[in-house]
Write a structure and sequence with these properties.
Blueprint (H helix, E strand, L loop, with lengths): L11 E2 L11 H9 L24 E2 L10 H12 L3 H13 L16 H16 L6 E10 L9 E10 L4 E11 L17 H18 L6 E8 L7 H12 L3 E8 L28 E6 L11 H14 L5 E6 L11 H5 L4 E4 L10 E2 H20 L5 E7 L6 E6 L6 E10 L7 E6 L3 E4 L6 E9 L15
Parallel strand pairs: 5-6, 5-7, 7-10, 8-9
Antiparallel strand pairs: 1-11, 2-15, 3-4, 4-6, 8-10, 12-13, 13-16, 14-15, 14-17
Length: 474
C-alpha cells in the first residue's frame, strides 16, 4: 500500500503526496508533425566550431561519449540549469492527487482516475509545445487492448506522445518514457487509490520537465517523450509504442525508461541489501542507478545497452555532477520495466530505477531532479552527436600483426569524421583512441587477438557517438 507520510525533510512528496496505422518512416513523422499544437517562433542556437583534432593513439577519454566543444558544452549547461525541482514537485503532487491512475479506472471522470491524468498530461505537454516554433508536437496514441489475465474486458489504453522532430537526422530516434498509470495493491483493484508518487509520477515528471526545457531548442535527431499507460498490467503502452516505431522503420538508437526515481538506494542509507547504488550501504545522495542489459558482444559489458549506459555516464559526469552507477542487468530482481519491449526489438534500452516504492518511502524530488538532469545531459548529447557508425568490420592480416577496420559513412550533415578506439582484452573501458578522419577504413598495427576494437563518429560540434563494435567475418 502507499504510505501517507506527507512532506518531510528536503523535498519529499507524497500522499505520501490517434492511433498510427501507417508503416513507414515518413508517415510516422508526418503524423507527429500534424498533431494539433499551437506554436511560436523560438530562438535558434548558433553555429558550432569544427571538431578539435585528437592525437593518434592517445588515451581514449571519455570512453564512449561526449567530449564536447566549448559551445556545445555551454548549451548543455544552460539546459541543465533550467531543470526545476519545484516544477517536478508540482507535477508529482498533481499526478498523485488523481488517486487511482489504474488502467481499468474511469476514463471520463474529470478529477479522478486514468482519464483525468491522461487529459492533464496531454494539456501540459501542449503548453510546452507552444514555444517550439512547430518543431514539437503532441498527440494521443490510443488503441483497444483485448482481454487477458489482468484486463478482463476490452479496454482503451492511451499513450501521450510528445515528439521533437530532428532537424538533420529525423529518422534517428531517442525515446524517454515514464508510465502515468498506477495501481493499488492488486492489479484488479481499479477503484482503490494508488497515488504512487514514486512509481511512477516521478518518471512522468522527468518526461514532462524534459519537454519543457527542450521545447525551444533544436536537436539533430528526433526525440520522443512518452507518458505511457498500461505498464502495471503488462507493459502495454511501451509495447505499443515500440511496435509502431519498428513498423515505421525508425532508427531507434537509445531508449531511457524512467521509473520509480524518487530516491531509494542511491539516496538512502542501508540500501545495499537491495543491491542498490549505495554498494556499501552508505549514503550516496548524488548517485543514480541505471540498469543496462549485459549480453555478450565484444566482451561481457559490450552489449548495445551497456554502450548506451556508458554514454549516459560520460555525458552526465562532467555536466550533471551526478554519479551514474551502471548495473549490468536487465532490471531489478523479479521486475520488468518499459525498456523491455524495446530490448525485445533489438534496440539499446536502459532503465533508471531505485529499489522499493511508495509503500516504503516518500518521493524525494531533489533526487528526481538529479535523474532529470542526467537524462537531459545524455539525451541532448546523443541527439546532437552523429549516429553510431554502421556496418563496422575488422580484418586481421595473415600474420596477425595488424587489423583493418571498415565501416559505412553516415549521411548526416554535421558529421566530421571517425575515431577508432581500442582496449586490452582484460580492460573494462576503452583506453586508446586515434582520429581516422572522414574515411571509411583505418588500419591499426595491433593484433586483434590482444585487443577489442571499436569505431565512433565525431560531429563538427565535437560530440561523439557511442562506440560501434565490429562484426568479425566468419
Amino acid at each position: 500500500m502507499v504510505g501517507r507520510t506527507g512532506r518531510t525533510n528536503g523535498r519529499r512528496v507524497g500522499r505520501t503526496v490517434s492511433d498510427l496505422a501507417s508503416s513507414d518512416r515518413r508517415a510516422f513523422l508526418t503524423a507527429t508533425a500534424a498533431a494539433e499544437t499551437t506554436a511560436a517562433d523560438a530562438p535558434v542556437p548558433g553555429g558550432t566550431p569544427p571538431v578539435p583534432p585528437a592525437p593518434g593513439g592517445a588515451p581514449a577519454r571519455p570512453a564512449d561519449g561526449t567530449e564536447a566543444a566549448p559551445h556545445a558544452d555551454r548549451e548543455l549547461r544552460e539546459l541543465l540549469e533550467e531543470v526545476d525541482p519545484g516544477r517536478i514537485e508540482d507535477t508529482v503532487r498533481r499526478l498523485a492527487a488523481f488517486g487511482a491512475r489504474h488502467t481499468l479506472s474511469s476514463q471520463t471522470d474529470p478529477e479522478h482516475g486514468i482519464g483525468a491524468a491522461r487529459d492533464w498530461v496531454h494539456a501540459r505537454m501542449k503548453e510546452c509545445a507552444r514555444v517550439s516554433g512547430g518543431r514539437m508536437s503532441v498527440r494521443l496514441q490510443s488503441w483497444i487492448q483485448e482481454p487477458d489475465s489482468l484486463v478482463p474486458t476490452p479496454t482503451r489504453i492511451t499513450n501521450v506522445l510528445t515528439t521533437l522532430r530532428g532537424t538533420s537526422a529525423p529518422n534517428r530516434v531517442y525515446v524517454v518514457s515514464g508510465h502515468y498509470d498506477s495501481r493499488a495493491c492488486g492489479a484488479a483493484a481499479a477503484d482503490g487509490d494508488g497515488p504512487r508518487a514514486d512509481d511512477d509520477a516521478s518518471g512522468v515528471a522527468v518526461v514532462m520537465e524534459l519537454a519543457r526545457v527542450l521545447a525551444a531548442r533544436r536537436t539533430a535527431a528526433t526525440v520522443v517523450l512518452a507518458a505511457v499507460a498500461g505498464e502495471a498490467h503488462g507493459l502495454y503502452g511501451a509495447s505499443h509504442l515500440a511496435g509502431e516505431l519498428k513498423a515505421a522503420g525508425m532508427d531507434v538508437q537509445g531508449v531511457f525508461a524512467v521509473d520509480a526515481v524518487g530516491g531509494g538506494a542511491a539516496g538512502e542509507a542501508g540500501a545495499a541489501e537491495d543491491g542498490g547504488a549505495a554498494e556499501d550501504g552508505a549514503r550516496a545522495p548524488r548517485a543514480v542507478r541505471l540498469y543496462a542489459q549485459g549480453a555478450p558482444a565484444g566482451g561481457k559489458d559490450d552489449s548495445p545497452s551497456c554502450r548506451l549506459a556508458r554514454s549516459v555516464r560520460d555525458a552526465a559526469g562532467d555536466t550533471a555532477e551526478v554519479d551514474v552507477r551502471v548495473v549490468h542487468g536487465d532490471d531489478r530482481d523479479r521486475w520488468a520495466g518499459d525498456h523491455v519491449p524495446f530490448l525485445e526489438r533489438g534496440w539499446p534500452a536502459v532503465r533508471f530505477a531505485e529499489p522499493g516504492g511508495d509503500a516504503r518511502r516518500p518521493c524525494d524530488v531533489d533526487h528526481t531532479a538529479r535523474v532529470a538532469r542526467v537524462t537531459a545531459a545524455a539525451l541532448w548529447t546523443l541527439a546532437q552527436a552523429p549516429g553510431a557508425p554502421a556496418g563496422v568490420q575488422v580484418r586481421t592480416d595473415e600474420l596477425g600483426a595488424s587489423a583493418e577496420l571498415r565501416w559505412r559513412r553516415g549521411t548526416e550533415s554535421g558529421l566530421a569524421g571517425y575515431e577508432v578506439v581500442w582496449r586490452g582484452a582484460a580492460e573494462p573501458e576503452w583506453t586508446h583512441v586515434v582520429q581516422a578522419g572522414d574515411t571509411v577504413q583505418h588500419t591499426v598495427g595491433l593484433s586483434g587477438d590482444d585487443v577489442f576494437f571499436g569505431v565512433r563518429a565525431v560531429g563538427r560540434n565535437g560530440l561523439r557517438s557511442p562506440v560501434a563494435l565490429p562484426a568479425r567475418p566468419r
